[in-house]
Amino acid sequence: MAAPHHPPNPRKRVLVVEDNPLNMRLFSAMIAAEGYEVLEANSGQRGLELAQQQHPDLIIMDIQLPGLSGLEVTQSLKADAATHDIPIIATTAFATRGDEETIMASGCDAYMAKPIAISQFLELIEAFMAPAPHAAACSA
Ligand code: MN
To answer: Distance from the CA of 63 to the center of ligand 1, in angstroms?
Structure first.
């Protein structure tokens, strides 16, 4: 495998919680291309379990999920001392200004509207992966 252009050492892991297979493939490929290991969950329940078991470095959280929603999963993770420090970037296709406030109030650290802008998505991931305390604020 070719060395990533900025090798994380040890390899950092990103959990993608996304029920749309095309979005999952897109997010997963982009994140892997950055040199990170990708964990995939196609439901909120599975995302919650993987986050608890694997404690990834970052979570990309779809809000609209069957069963447990992304908001519910986020609230659970942020209420648990074992997982509350994991940054969560929410993604959703249906967001009004009010929705965005609800999303941020659930504990998400940043928010991106779908369809996502790839360069902005990757910049946001890098901001949360940086060794310095993350001060990332997403304006999307
Ligand atoms: Mn969805």
So the answer is: 6
